[in-house]
Amino acid sequence: MKLLIVEDETELRRMMAETLREAGYVVETARTYAEAEEKLHLYEYDCILLDLMLPDGDGLELLRMLSGQGSAARVIITSAKDSVEDKVAGLDLGADDYLPKPFHLAELTARVRSLIRRSGAGTHRIEVGNVSLNPDDRSAAVEGKPLNLLHKEYHILYYFMTRPGRVVDKQVLAEAVWGDHADQSDNFSFLYQQVANLKRKLKEAGASVAIQAVYGFGYKLVEEGERS
Question: Among 89, 110, 129, 164, which has the minimal tally of Cβ within 10 Å of its Cβ?
Answer without folding.
Answer: 110
